[in-house]
Amino acid sequence: MTDYSGNSRFAPRQNLAGRESGGTHPEVPDSRPVDIQRGVNRGESVGNTPIRAPYGEDRHTSGPYTDPYTEDRHTRHRSRRIRLTILDTLITATLGPRGHPLRAVLSGLGVAIGIASLVAVLGIPACFQAEAQAEFDAWGANLVIARPAVDRYTNVETPIPETAPAMVSRIWSVKSSFAVRAVPDAHAYRTDTIPQGQSQGISVMVGQGDPLGTLSTTMTSGRWFDDASSPLPTVVLGSNAATLLDVGLGQRVWIGDNWWAVIGILGPLPGFAAQLNSSTFLAPGWA
User: Fold this and answer.
1) Which domain holds residue 276?
2) Tell me, what DSSP letter sits at residue 35?
3) Number of domains into which the chain is organized
4) Secondary structure of 172-196 in the HEC alphabet?
5) Which of 55, 71, 73 is nearest to 63 (CA)?
6) What Rg value do the Cα atoms of the chain yield, rounded?
7) Is residue 50 included in any domain, yes or no?
8) Phi (first) and psi of residue 194, to 5 degrees
9) Contact assessment for residue 244 and residue 202, using Cβ atoms and an 8 Å cutoff
10) What tens digit of pLDDT does each residue of 36-63 get?
């Protein structure tokens, strides 16, 4: 049934063909639908734009319709794939820096500053932590240091009893102990002609116990006090004291009003006992 009122989109081809071309055969039957709005048959073209036929129909072939735009598109895509050479890749990668050199320099400078800041922020605390850890390792996890108690109100010092080192060494869990006691108003000198005011800060202490095992050090030369050397006027020098006095093993130093023979020189002591490096040690019973 034909309807030209515009309510239907399709009309028989014979009426449309007769009206457009003015043909003399309007009675020729043609049942192919015509799109009135577009004015063309399905499957035909308008200008350079092709109109695809409905899926499953093809008036040029007897088989099912095949869309030429989607036919084997994966194969055609693979055949047209373009691969860049290494040189082309490098040229493409450097287009930005070569086109904007100032921007590239500023970007590189910003990255360098960021990396340097990160290294500084993480590296400086790590250095302090490593230094503190090395100092703790030098002390030892099982080292206990006992000092005289000082009253913070009266500033009065409570001395450690002289019997304390022997009592501590008898405790079953103590492996070794070392006690030092400063000799007041005593300094060591290279000769007896040096004025008392030029002591170079070398103090005199009485050492009792085992400094090698307790302080984790060694003897640079000589030995520590033993039963044979303790009754004699002998001394053991710290590493800095030996350097300041410029004396070696077998030489003498002036302490008080007597000459004392050097029988040993201690090696460098760890940080917690570094003040003992500038000391001169006497055997127990001499002061």
Assistant:
1) 165-282
2) E
3) 1
4) CCCCCCEEEEEEEEEEEECCCCCCC
5) 55
6) 52
7) no
8) -80, 135
9) yes
10) 444 444 444 445 555 554 544 444 445 5
